[in-house]
Write a structure and sequence with these properties.
Blueprint (H helix, E strand, L loop, with lengths): L7 E5 L3 H13 L6 E5 L2 H6 L5 E4 L7 H17 L4 E6 L2 H11 L4 E4 L10 H6 L5 E4 L20 E3 L10 E5 L9 H9 L6 E5 L11 E3 L4 H10 L2 E5 L2 H9 L5 E3 L12 H11 L4 E2 L8 H7 L3 E3 L1
Parallel strand pairs: 1-2, 1-4, 2-3, 4-5, 5-6, 8-9, 8-11, 9-10, 11-12, 12-13
Antiparallel strand pairs: 7-14
Helix pairs in contact: 1-8, 3-4
């Protein structure tokens, strides 16, 4: 899609959207002069430490005022720098930047997130109407003339053949940082399958619990989370795209605890769709939160994910 060494304006929200862009960057091999525009968080600062970046204020879904504030910041960038392309995987901040980039005559691409398994997001539905913004799907099932299928990041990963079950002792549990959604069902499910001698590290995000065994963090930076994951026998994570991609890039098969909006754990049910799509490719295991079984941890620990 782009020549090697192109100067790209990368625009995305934090979390999974940024992780997907970084994966795309690995295939594009863009210029070091490229610029990343996202929100400032502990994770984004560490993820982009070796890249040029500028941070804009957080843009919540359907927040018109924040969208306009971010648009003004991106407009100032476009007025002082030229780019060969502008690429985004969402979410709301893409509405701030991509139409402006297209107006400046920059080839502009919106790649719908892996999180959108069956249809485009609200952001995608806006941008498909924006002049000169090209939109792409990562799932063939809902691709169309307006949303051509151009491959999927899932194709970058495969799973090694299974070995004998691994004796699991070091367990990392990471629940993301989604505010304000607690995920107590995941904590309770993990507690129910622990055995004597297990070594636990927790990253709880918006979940507030006391008296948990092991080491507890509310938030962890990208690098710190990666180091803990690499040292763990198995990682249990919510079904957030960013964490899934990070773990698979480390060779880990994630065990997914899926957030359910019926339990007020997320705004919608897209984590269930993500988990189903990943499980169908054999690159994750899913922990049944109603009937958790330790064998799922051992099965995941015995596999290795290969990143291409």
């Amino acid at each position: 899609m782009l020549p090697r060494g192109a100067k790209v304006l990368w625009v995305s929200s934090a979390g999974g959207h940024l992780s997907e862009l970084l994966k795309i960057d690995g295939t594009v091999q863009a210029s070091e002069d490229s610029l990343w525009v996202t929100f400032e968080t502990q994770q984004t600062v560490s993820m982009l430490s070796a890249r040029r970046s500028q941070f804009v204020g957080y843009v919540a879904p359907r927040d018109a005022a924040a969208t306009l504030r971010a648009a003004r910041r991106i407009l100032s960038i476009l007025r002082r720098e030229s780019f060969d392309a502008c690429i985004s995987t969402g979410a709301a901040v893409a509405v701030s930047g991509l139409p402006l980039a297209a107006l400046f005559g920059i080839p502009t691409y919106y790649v719908e997130s892996l999180a959108r398994v069956s249809a485009p997001s609200f952001t995608g539905r806006i941008l498909e109407r924006a002049p000169r913004v090209r939109t792409y799907a990562q799932y063939e099932g809902w691709s169309s003339r307006r949303w051509p299928y151009a491959g999927t990041i899932w194709d970058s990963f495969s799973c090694s053949s299974g070995t004998e079950p691994v004796r699991v002792r070091k367990i990392l549990v990471t629940l993301g940082t989604i505010r304000p959604y607690a995920f107590d069902r995941a904590v309770d499910a993990v507690l129910s399958i622990l055995q004597p001698g297990d070594e636990l590290t927790w990253q709880l995000g918006s979940t507030r619990r006391s008296g948990l065994p092991g080491t507890v963090h509310q938030e962890m930076g990208f690098g710190e989370l990666g180091r803990c994951a690499a040292a763990a026998d198995v990682v249990i994570t919510h079904a957030g795209v960013g964490t899934i991609l990070q773990l698979m890039s480390l060779g880990k098969m994630p065990v997914l605890a899926v957030r359910d909006p019926a339990h007020r754990e997320h705004v919608d049910g897209h984590q269930d769709e993500i988990a189903s799509a990943a499980a169908a490719r054999g690159v994750v295991r899913v922990l049944d939160l109603a009937r958790p079984h330790r064998g799922v941890l051992e099965a995941a620990a015995s596999r290795r994910i290969i990143s291409t």
